[in-house]
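@channel sequence for tomorrow's demo:
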Amino acid sequence: MIWTLASDIADKGQVTSLGAIQNFGGFLGAALAPAVTGYILHSTGGNYSLVFIVGGVLLIVDALSYGLFVKDRRPAVLTSER
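structure tokens (generated this afternoon):
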């Protein structure tokens, strides 16, 4: 569903750029997740609770950032007052 977001909110000439930025963010997270998970597990003695807490917090931050930073790009509907 994240791929449709780029086409919904970006201008026609910027869809691929926004898609590429989103893709880069996903790949960056996928590259860092195993290292961060390993560090947390090593630091906590193999306790997975903090790993899931960090994942949940990041998910909430991600959802809030889309809600706060993504603007409504639909054209305004003009209504005439009589």
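heads up for whoever presents: The radius of gyration is 19 Å.
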